[in-house]
Amino acid sequence: MKDQPVLFYCKDGTLYPVALTVEQQQIFEMTVSLLSPLKVVFDKPQGQAVNLLPNREEQL
Asked: Superkingdom, according to UniProt (predicted)?
């Protein structure tokens, strides 16, 4: 999995990953680039990343 920004939704104190369409992902990446450079807090990890859509790469 490559290093990249991801989007999460917080509900009742629990973080949930947000699935984006290809178009939404492109818009999200452009929006994040406006905030660059991002301040990454490396000493506060939230857990291991898991690919919930393993075949998504094949569908693109």
From this structure: Bacteria
